[in-house]
Design a protein that fits this description.
single chain, mainly alpha, 2 domains, flat
């Protein structure tokens, strides 16, 4: 499961706000330039981001493999026509470019998650959206970032336990239903524990968050983000 990994890369030294600004500008550029040439340039930029954050490409693709079938399904479905010639490849071009755009956005988001501590993300959201709205979104990001890896680990353990009891010999429908029940049960148990822990720690809207500060490496990133937004708007 992709999560924050301490390091000393260029992306690790950036302020969370500048990384969020770059992400938003990258998404804007990805949706503005959907031509093969534009996506080729964004691919180069994505590779630069992965290199600057020391994020492995193949490992990240393996982590987001659950969404790859949905990304690949769109152009395949669009290419199928009801009648001769049955397959129209020209109809699959635009959906394929859109799917590839989504993949680039996921890779850049993965680099952000790998290089940004959860509390810094909470502080950046609280700074961008003052008041309870920012605090609420920050808490949500913190809960998801900490809770989701535990749920994924629970599912892995449930699958391993099911396989150890020869569960792989059962029909696929039975295996899926068993895993769904086990996953929901463990999720509810963890939610109860999380609720108790939050009450025990007196969860506050005014929790102390880390202080954010922009440094020299943030300046070129912010300037480049502004340029991307400008190019996306013209």
């Amino acid at each position: 499961m992709l999560s924050f990994s301490p390091g000393r890369s260029f992306a690790h030294r950036l302020d969370a706000r500048s990384k969020l600004a770059f992400q938003l500008s990258f998404v804007a550029a990805a949706y503005a330039y959907t031509t093969p040439r534009g996506l080729a340039l964004l691919t180069v930029l994505t590779l630069v981001v992965l290199f600057a954050s020391r994020t492995p490409l193949l490992g990240t693709l393996w982590t987001v493999r659950i969404v790859l079938p949905f990304v690949l399904a769109a152009p395949l479905i669009e290419a199928v026509v009801l009648g001769p010639p049955w397959v129209a490849l020209d109809r699959a071009v635009d959906p394929a470019l859109a799917s590839y755009r989504i993949l680039l956005v996921l890779l850049v988001a993965a680099a952000y998650v790998r290089t940004t501590p959860v509390r810094e993300s909470q502080a950046a959201l609280a700074w961008a959206l003052p008041g309870r709205v920012g605090r609420f979104l920050g808490l949500g990001v913190g809960f998801v970032a900490r809770f989701l890896p535990l749920l994924v680990d629970d599912l892995r353990r449930a699958r391993a336990a099911h396989a150890a009891r020869l569960g792989t010999e059962q029909p696929v429908r039975t295996r899926i239903s068993w895993l769904v029940v086990a996953g929901v049960s463990r999720a509810l148990t963890r939610a109860d524990r999380l609720s108790l822990a939050l009450r025990a720690r007196c969860l506050s809207w005014n929790a102390t968050l880390p202080r954010l500060s922009l440094g020299p490496p943030d300046l070129p990133v912010l300037v480049f983000s502004v340029v991307l937004v400008f190019l996306s708007a013209v």
